[in-house]
Design a protein that fits this description.
By secondary structure, the chain is α+β, with helices and mostly antiparallel strands. Helices cover 40% and strands 19% of the residues. The chain is built from 17 helices and 17 strands. The strands form five sheets. It has a five-stranded antiparallel beta sheet, with helices on both faces. The chain has a three-stranded antiparallel beta sheet with strand order 6-7-8. Strand 12 and strand 13 form a beta hairpin. Helix 1 runs antiparallel to helix 2. The radius of gyration is 27 Å and the shape is globular. The two termini are 22 Å apart. The relative contact order is 0.09.
Length: 512
C-alpha cells in the first residue's frame, strides 16, 4: 500500500485532471462531500468544482498553494476501491483533513493494473485555519504504515481461513490461492511464510496445509468449460495481462503463472467460483494458452470481437465498447467504423443497429422508472421495443426532487392560459396515461406523476389538446439537445449515436 502526496497548486488543477479521466472512461467519482449546492446538481463541470474549492479556501488568503492531492494505491486488486476509500478516510482523519465540513473529492481510477484512488481537498480547515503540513511526508508514511499494520494483520488471518476452504491438492496450489489474494508466499523450513507490503505477517505450518489437500477427482465438466473460455478470451486479448484481467473480472478465475515473468513453464487456475485450483496443463497447455493474436489479426476480426462482447453483455453501449476499443487498439468508433493505423473496418449493420438500441435503452434507463406505466411511457417516447430490458427502480432518480421544485415554481408563477405553453417552452413533455398526468423532464432525466406530487393537474385539462403527442418531432429535438450536452463526472449523458463525438484522450500529462 502506498500513499503519495502529489504536488500542491494554487488553482486545484487536480480536479480537471481527474474529471478528464472520468470523461475518458478511465475513472469514476466515488465520493463528493461538503460541496454545497453542487452535490445536488445533475450536471456540473470541473470548473464548478474548482470554483467551489477556491471560494472555500479564500477564507485564508495566506496559503498560496492550497490544493491537497493524495493518491493511495495497492498492488493489483488486493484491496477493492471501497476498502481504499475507507483507508483514505482513516488517513485523512489522522492527518487533520477529516473535520466536519471539509470539502472532499475521491476518484477511483481503473486505467492501470493496480487499484488506486485520488483524493482532493483543501489545506484550509472549515474554520479558516491552515492544516499543518509540518513533516508531512514522514507523518504520511507513519500513518499509512500504522493503518495498514492493523488492516493486514486482521485480513491475513481471514485470508488463510478462506484459502483452506478451497479444493487444492498440493501446498504450492494453496500458496497460489493466497497469491491471488495479494500475498507473497514462500517456504522456510517447515512453514509457509506470508508477506504483504514487504512485511512478514504470519506463518502457516506446511503439515497443516498438506492435511487439507484433497486428491479426489476434479470436476471434468468445469475443466471443459474453462478450456473453452480460456481459448475464447485468449483470441480476444493482446497479451497475458489482458487475459488474466478478463478471466478475473468476468469469471472470478485467477491465472497464476510459474517460472520467469517472460517465459513461464506452467500455470495454475484458481477458480474462485467453485473454490478449486486446477493444474493449467490439464486444461490448456501453457504454450497454447500464450499464442496471442497480433492487433492486426484481431482487428481483421472486429465483427467477431464485438459479437463476443455483446454475448457477454447484451446491453453493451457504444460508450462501454469504445472503452474496450481504446484499451485493445487505442482507437474508437467514428461514423460507424473503427480505425487502426491506416486501416478502417466498417462494422456490420446488425452490430450498429444493436449498439444504437443499447444506447437508447441506457438513456431511457437513466430516467429511473418506478412502475410499469412509467416504463411504458418512456419506451413510447424513445421508440424502444424491449421494455423488459429496462429495470423498474424501487426509488425515483436523484433529480426527481429538483424536477418537482421546478414544476411547482412554474405552476405558482404562470397563469392557467399560459401554463401548458410554458411547460413545453421550458422543455417538459406532458402526457396523460390511465387518467394520470406525467411530466418527462429530459434535462434532469426524470419522469414524475404530477398529481402524486401535489400539482393541480386540473389546470392542464382546458388545454389538454395541446399536450404533446409522443410522435411530436419536437420531442426528438429535445432529446437531441439534451444528449449532446456535456457535464462533469455525474453527468449521465450517453453517446446517442454510434460514432458520435466523444471525449478523446489528448495524452496530456497532469501538471505538477
Amino acid at each position: 500500500m502506498i500513499a503519495t502526496i502529489l504536488p500542491s497548486s494554487a488553482n486545484f488543477h487536480a480536479v480537471e485532471y481527474n474529471e478528464r479521466k472520468v470523461a475518458q472512461g478511465k475513472a469514476e467519482l466515488l465520493e463528493m462531500t461538503n460541496f454545497g449546492f453542487i452535490s445536488c446538481m445533475e450536471t456540473y463541470t470541473w470548473e464548478d468544482l474548482t470554483t467551489y474549492l477556491k471560494d472555500y479556501t479564500s477564507r485564508n488568503t495566506r496559503i498560496k498553494r492550497p490544493q491537497f492531492h493524495l493518491a493511495i494505491s495497492c498492488r493489483g486488486d488486493e484491496y477493492t476501491q471501497e476498502e481504499l476509500v475507507n483507508i483514505a478516510h482513516r488517513y485523512l482523519n489522522e492527518m487533520g483533513y477529516g473535520q466536519p465540513g471539509q470539502p472532499l473529492l475521491i476518484y477511483g481510477h481503473h486505467d492501470t493494473d493496480n487499484n488506486h484512488i485520488h483524493v482532493i481537498t483543501s489545506r484550509v480547515d472549515p474554520h479558516g485555519r491552515k492544516i499543518s503540513d509540518s513533516m508531512e511526508k514522514r507523518r504520511s508514511l507513519e500513518t499509512i504504515e500504522r493503518i495498514m499494520g492493523v488492516n493486514d494483520s486482521q485480513k491475513i488471518g481471514e485470508a488463510v481461513s478462506k484459502a483452506l476452504e478451497y479444493h487444492f491438492s498440493t501446498a504450492p496450489q494453496f500458496m497460489a490461492i493466497l497469491e491471488t489474494m495479494g500475498y507473497e508466499c514462500y517456504t522456510e523450513d517447515d512453514d509457509i511464510v506470508l508477506k504483504r507490503n514487504g512485511v512478514v505477517h504470519d506463518k502457516v505450518k506446511i503439515s497443516l496445509v498438506e492435511s487439507k489437500c484433497r486428491k479426489d477427482m476434479y470436476d471434468k465438466k468445469r475443466m471443459v468449460q474453462l478450456k473453452a473460455i480460456l481459448k475464447k478470451y485468449r483470441d480476444m486479448a493482446a497479451n497475458r495481462q489482458e487475459l488474466q484481467d478478463a478471466m478475473k473480472t468476468k469469471f472470478g478465475v485467477s491465472l497464476v503463472f510459474l517460472g520467469s515473468k517472460d517465459s513461464p513453464y506452467g500455470y495454475l487456475i484458481v477458480d474462485h467460483h467453485t473454490k478449486t485450483v486446477f493444474k493449467g496443463s490439464d486444461v490448456v497447455k501453457v504454450k497454447e494458452l500464450l499464442l496471442f493474436q497480433s492487433k492486426e489479426e484481431r482487428f481483421r476480426q472486429m465483427d467477431a470481437f464485438i459479437d463476443q462482447m455483446l454475448d457477454d453483455n447484451i446491453n453493451l453501449t457504444t460508450k462501454e465498447l469504445n472503452r474496450l476499443l481504446r484499451r485493445q487498439f487505442g482507437t474508437k468508433f467514428l461514423n460507424g467504423s473503427v480505425r487502426y493505423g491506416d486501416s478502417t473496418y466498417q462494422l456490420s449493420e446488425h452490430i450498429l443497429t444493436t449498439l444504437r438500441s443499447n444506447d437508447r435503452r441506457a438513456w431511457l434507463q437513466s430516467f429511473c422508472p418506478t412502475n410499469e406505466l412509467e416504463r411504458h411511457i418512456l419506451c413510447q417516447i424513445g421508440k424502444y421495443h424491449h421494455p423488459e430490458r429496462i429495470a423498474i427502480q424501487s426509488n425515483p432518480g436523484s433529480n426527481a426532487g429538483k424536477t418537482v421544485s421546478q414544476l411547482r415554481y412554474i405552476f405558482d408563477t404562470t397563469s392557467d392560459d399560459a401554463l401548458v405553453d410554458k411547460l413545453h417552452e421550458d422543455g417538459y413533455f406532458i402526457t396523460r396515461a390511465d387518467d394520470q398526468y406525467y411530466c418527462v423532464d429530459f434535462a434532469n432525466r426524470t419522469i414524475v406523476n404530477m398529481k402524486n406530487q401535489g400539482l393541480d393537474v386540473s389546470r392542464l385539462q382546458p388545454k389538454q389538446d395541446q399536450s404533446r403527442h409522443i410522435s411530436d418531432p419536437g420531442i426528438g429535438r429535445a432529446i437531441d439537445k439534451v444528449t449532446k450536452q456535456r457535464g462533469g463526472s455525474n453527468d449521465s449523458n450517453r453517446e446517442w449515436e454510434v460514432g458520435g463525438r466523444g471525449y478523446e484522450d489528448d495524452d496530456r500529462s497532469m501538471k505538477r
